[in-house]
Specification:
single chain; about 210 residues; alpha/beta; Rossmann fold
Amino acid sequence: MRYQRCKLLFGGDFQKLSKSKVIIIGVGGVGSFCLDALYRSGVKDITIVDFDTFEITNQNRQIGSEQIGQKKVEVLSKKYPGVKPIVAKATDEWIEDFDFDPYDLVVDAIDDIPAKVALAKKTHHKLISSMGGAKRIDPTKIEKTSIWKTSIDPFAKKFRYELKKSGFKGDFEVVFSKELPIRCEGLGSFVGVTGSMGLALASLAIEKILYR
């Protein structure tokens, strides 16, 4: 049976997992691996949101990126049958207008700070979020914690600052790395880290769905 090993692991909780509704915002180097892990683990109702197309520079870290020039969500919805694609850029305006009520969990895998702030303000009670993954090579430095307890990562620091500036006083959990991002000047990336962040995000998603 397809999910036999998952059912052995999750026991009676597997039905709760299979009936959950999850939306993933951003399906790049982190989000695509999160999608893969949740899909393989039995989450059957997944919506993915992204506006971008695959480029050759995505091929070092993004699932589906062999399909250069095609919309990411369209490629991934074919690779993972049943996944619902939404071609949209997660701007402040889009987030404000979109109805997140039907979803049990919102997964933020985007790298735009204003959009992340808008998403947190609207959905923090059912949100998990990824921080920076570029310029790092050590996946063992990845941790899960409250957004307010993150450290080391400059991206998370900027996110915290903008949340405070906006008046946000809530809380939500994130995946971040304690490895200093000093390996290069540009946004160099290693799938061992970005993919691991996506898998850690999927792990946090399952914890939130089943046990919290």
